[in-house]
Design brief:
The chain is α+β, with helices and mostly antiparallel strands. The chain is built from two helices and eight strands; from the N terminus they run H-H-E-E-E-E-E-E-E-E. The strands form two sheets. It has a five-stranded mixed β-sheet with strand order 1-8-7-6-5, with no helix packed on it. The chain has a three-stranded antiparallel β-sheet with strand order 2-3-4, with no helix packed on it. A hairpin with a 2-residue loop joins strand 7 and strand 8. The longest helix is centred in the first third of the chain and has 30 residues. The protein is rod-shaped and about 115 Å long.
Length: about 160
C-alpha cells in the first residue's frame, strides 16, 4: 500500500529548508577552510632580483668561461671610502683611508703611499699596483649604489 503525504506543501517546504540549510553550512565550512588554510602574505616567494644575472652555467654550455684575471684582494690596511666617476676630460678619483689615520683623494696614476700606485678607478673597485703586483680594492657591498650613477651638475653634494 502506498503512503500518501498528508500535507504535500509542508513536506516540500521542509525539504527545501533542509537543502538550503545544508548548502549554507557547506558555504560556511568552505569559507572558514579557505581562511584557515590559505597561504599567508609572508609565505609568498620574493620577486626575482633585477640585478646581476649569473651566467656561469651558460658558459659551460656554450664554451669555456672567461679566464678570471681579477687580481688578489689587498692585504694592507687601506679602506675604500668612495669613488668619483670620470667626467669628460678628467680622470675619476677615489677616496681612501690609510691605516685608519689618513684620508686621501687619489687620482689615476698617483701614489697612495710609497710603492703603492692607483692604476684604475672602476665603478665599484680600484686597481692598485704594489711592487709590480696588481691588487684590487672593492667597495663594501652596502656602499654600492644599486640604482646606477647619480650625475651632479652643480658639483655641490
Amino acid at each position: 500500500m502506498k503512503k500518501i503525504a498528508a500535507y504535500p506543501i509542508q513536506t516540500a517546504t521542509v525539504l527545501l529548508l533542509r537543502v538550503a540549510a545544508i548548502a549554507g553550512m557547506a558555504m560556511v565550512l568552505a569559507h572558514w577552510t579557505w581562511i584557515w588554510f590559505a597561504p599567508r602574505a609572508g609565505d609568498v616567494a620574493p620577486p626575482a632580483s633585477e640585478g646581476h644575472v649569473a651566467t656561469d652555467s651558460a658558459y659551460l654550455l656554450f664554451g669555456q668561461p672567461p679566464v678570471a684575471s681579477a687580481p688578489a684582494a689587498t692585504g694592507m690596511a687601506i679602506r675604500l671610502l668612495g669613488i668619483v666617476a670620470a667626467t669628460a676630460g678628467q680622470d675619476g678619483y677615489a677616496v681612501v683611508q690609510l691605516d685608519t689615520k689618513k684620508i686621501l683623494a687619489v687620482r689615476k696614476g698617483q701614489e697612495l703611499a710609497p710603492g703603492i700606485r692607483l692604476l684604475e678607478v672602476g665603478a665599484d673597485h680600484l686597481l692598485l699596483e704594489r711592487g709590480g703586483v696588481r691588487e684590487t680594492l672593492s667597495l663594501p657591498v652596502s656602499d654600492v649604489n644599486r640604482k646606477g650613477i647619480n650625475i651632479v651638475e652643480s658639483g655641490i653634494l
